[in-house]
Design brief:
With 383 residues, the chain is α+β, with helices and mostly antiparallel strands. 58% of the residues lie in helices and 7% in strands. Helix 9 packs across helix 11.
């Protein structure tokens, strides 16, 4: 795995060459791992920087270029889809902010090389900006059911009909915490961002709002933690966060103040240990300079987190520990998820502890949310 991390560091321009040149067989393993971690396009830049004696065969370079070209085409298609969905929401009376995905890609030196995923939009009724989370959930779920009657609901999102095979998640809130007190604080922060209109400038190409700077620093850590606790988190999300921290343009004093504010929030969310572990992964794994770090890295927890990232791949693809977990019967699924999440107690104690409690509460509330929207739809049809 040393070669893979060095490949990423070369691609991110934090080293010039491998310590020892990979063999052709090792190069085959590198492209397979880059595929599994959804960073093929990013790592192509390493092939453009390496000295001739450390490059793979022409056949392998061609394969790398072909896969990256597919990523570029997918990104171009995704840009049009994001614009179409955001524009439709605006016409139908909803304001929205793009989360993750293409919103992260704009931070890359070349946004076309980031592997695309789903479209995630945080939305709310434009005329009811200060509506509660329950009210926004009800309004968005009612709207989504008009377009997709079979759409499912969970605590933080539902779905709109897919466009050309691309899933579209319509978020009531960007994320959540298992710990109820931490979640209350998180939702309060999200409301401050939303009602305070704290966005970056409207993105003219994507035709959608993008998150503000502080949101971009705190929210991705919550998102990475959430995926770690569900199916797994891969290197694509870590590279995303690398660029979040690397592209901050503030002066040294402004960065210091921003770090203090962000660490205050992350501490309130119970993510101080997790953040320190992530900083170690970014520094030792990707080569992020010390001046870009949020806090002092934690080597012990960082090694554990890096091992999880390598094992999981992109959203746990190929990880036998989570294979079939979501398809298991409810009692077995709950037990497997709880056992899986308790492994992360050293990173996020409260999140691990509250996993089963949050899942049980959400299961009860999903029935309530579905019933409310169903009854309202029935009343409208009778009227």
């Amino acid at each position: 795995m040393t070669h893979f991390l060095q490949l990423l560091q070369i691609a991110l321009e934090n080293r010039e060459r491998f310590d020892t040149a990979p063999t052709e067989e090792e190069w085959m393993g590198l492209i397979e791992e880059a595929n599994r971690q959804a960073v093929v396009g990013v790592t192509l830049h390493a092939l453009e920087r390496l000295p001739e004696e450390q490059l793979p065969s022409n056949d392998l370079k061609l394969q790398w270029h072909v896969v990256t070209e597919y990523v570029r085409e997918s990104n171009s298609d995704m840009t049009a889809k994001v614009a179409a969905v955001a524009s439709r929401l605006r016409r139908d009376g909803f304001d929205s902010v793009l989360l993750k995905g293409k919103g992260m890609a704009v931070l890359y030196p070349d946004s076309s090389v980031r592997t695309s995923g789903d479209i995630d939009l945080w939305a709310w009724p434009e005329e009811h900006v200060k509506a509660s989370l329950d009210e926004r959930r009800k309004a968005l779920l009612t709207y989504a059911r008009q377009l997709n009657p079979k759409c499912k609901v969970c605590y933080h999102h539902t779905s709109l009909p897919a466009i050309g095979g691309t899933k579209i998640e319509l978020h009531f809130t960007p994320s959540w915490m298992n710990n109820p007190w931490a979640n209350r604080f998180l939702q309060h922060r999200f409301d401050e961002y939303r009602t305070g209109n704290q966005y970056m400038a409207y993105h003219s190409t994507l035709k959608v709002n993008l998150p503000a700077q502080t949101f971009k620093v705190v929210y991705p850590i919550v998102h990475i933690c959430r995926h770690l606790f569900s199916e797994g988190v891969g290197m694509r999300q870590i590279v995303d966060y690398y660029y979040v921290l690397r592209t901050r343009l503030n002066d040294e004093e402004s960065v210091r103040q921003e770090n203090e504010a962000c660490m205050h929030d992350l501490n309130r969310l119970g993510l101080r240990r997790f953040t320190a572990a992530l900083m170690w992964v970014l520094k030792e794994g990707l080569g992020l300079p010390d001046e870009n770090l949020l806090c002092k890295p934690d080597e012990r927890r960082g090694r554990f987190l890096l091992n999880e990232i390598i094992l999981s791949g992109n959203f746990g693809q190929g990880d036998p520990r989570v294979t079939g977990m979501n398809d298991a019967p409810l009692p077995r699924r709950a037990m497997r998820k709880t056992t899986h999440n308790l492994r992360f107690f050293t990173l996020c104690p409260a999140e691990a502890f509250w996993t089963l409690g949050f899942k049980a509460w959400q299961w009860v509330m999903i029935r309530k949310w579905n019933k409310e929207v169903g009854e309202e739809s029935l009343e409208r049809s009778k009227g």
